[in-house]
Amino acid sequence: MKALVFAEKADHLNRISSKLKELGFEVHALSFAEVNADFLYLAGPKYDYASITAAIDMLSNEIRPDLVVFSSTKLGKEVSSRFAQRKNMTCITECLDLQLGDSSITVSRYSLGGKTVTKIRTHLPAVVALVADAIESKEQSFQMNVREFQIPDSPQIRTVSREEKRREAVGLKEADVIVVVGRGLRKEEDLKLVKELAKKLNAEIGCTRPLSHDYRWLPEERMIGLSGEKVSPKLLISIGVSGQIQHAVGIMNSKTVIAINTDENAPMKEHSDYFIVGDLYEILPELIKNL
Amino acid sequence: MKIAVCVKEIYNLEQVKIVRETREPILDVPKKLDDLSRNALEEAIKIREKLGGEIVAISAGSPELRKTIKEALAMGADRAAIVTDFTESSPESAALVLSRILEKDSYDLILLGDASSDDYSGQMASRVAETLNLPQITFVSEIREVSDGKITCVRDMDDYIEVVESDLPCVVSVTNEINEPRIPALKDILKASKKPVENFSLQDLGIEISRSYEIVENLAPAVDRKQEVIEGEAAEVAGKIAEIIGREV
User: Fold this and answer.
1) Which CATH number is associated with domain A177-290?
2) Fewer CB atoms near the end CB (10 Å): N or C, chain B?
3) Which architecture, in CATH terms, is A2-148?
4) What is the least distance, in Å, from the CA of B182 to any CA of chain A?
């Protein structure tokens, strides 16, 4: 069994390669950096879908893989589905795990906006895009045959500029205590209340999507949910968060969840061990005094 | 400018309940136009306001779509072309159906949401563009300029922001941050019923759908929280929270 894998990020590629090796695949990887693989096709970086799709197509015609695997980043999703369409193949994106059956694979992914997890089985050959952070695998040993590879320069659109996002180093994944803030917060200045609480508890601050993506009060890397971070702290304090499922899937692995919300019927209740009905503006100052 | 907007009907997710014992979803709820489809429509309307032209809403779905598509017409699409006997929802079959409808006309721009809020699969732009042999610009957070024959967009990617341009025709998928979709007024809703809707069947389009994968199970993740409700005066409640924090950390 052969797998062809591409990811623009080396750490994603290493995780996915290990998983594929563990399942018994011979791993062929197209990469911009030195990563673990049985056969490594080392190329200069390119970020346009058309050139990468062409490269995967070339390699796939040469290798004849049973499974073509991408990291489920935005680039990974756009290339995997363009490639799958070219080959008239199934493609399943946002996969949280990967199991190998008898000439088939089974993957899990969220559906119904995160309300359910769907297990899907499909025959090989197939294309999948895996959420690298969700994939667990042990370290494997690889053949490490390295070959220089030239990605054909065949863009269909013109890149005017590309700018790296400025990223704040955020320790949400490792944090023992996380304070999450949602739309119950009325204005940006009020974040100082939340920050004060977080400081007392030595906690990281997380938020729901509107705060990071619509209001821009907090950086995107602090967003917890289906399309953001999935966290697993000992204690998570959720403040003014309604508890939409797209957010709730990100906190499901927390040990204890305390929520403060004015609405006693907020969906957040279902996702809380302790659900405090009350006004954050009255409770937080008192709580900070108490700590 | 002739713009096609591919829209999707989805279950009204807020109304989907889970059976506690079996963790199965109850899908006996009405359908609605997906929020991301509304973002794509809104962008199309803005372009029409500037450059003039026509917006055609294109969709494949269940018989209920005849009703759901009115939401797109009420928002501002001039007409619609739909397939209403499409119950299989794999991305490859949906792309095939949409592409066949799109091929019946010629468009300068094809807009859609970067994913749908139910499956979040995010394949449709790529698959439609590949089928129609067109360039694609995905995950667009801003359309900077559209003119005759050219479009310039800002893409919001995982770790970078990119400005790209493409010749038209082109397929563009938008994020839900790109705009705030307008809410149709009553008169727009009334007008929507009079707008033309072309209704095709899969047979009209010469498409036979085959399922390429199998759903083994579809269950809500087990959530087992205590859900203990605490109410009272702020000072008293704060004391209780502090106590819980002390126990847990």
Assistant:
1) 3.40.50.1220
2) C
3) 3-Layer(aba) Sandwich (3.40)
4) 16
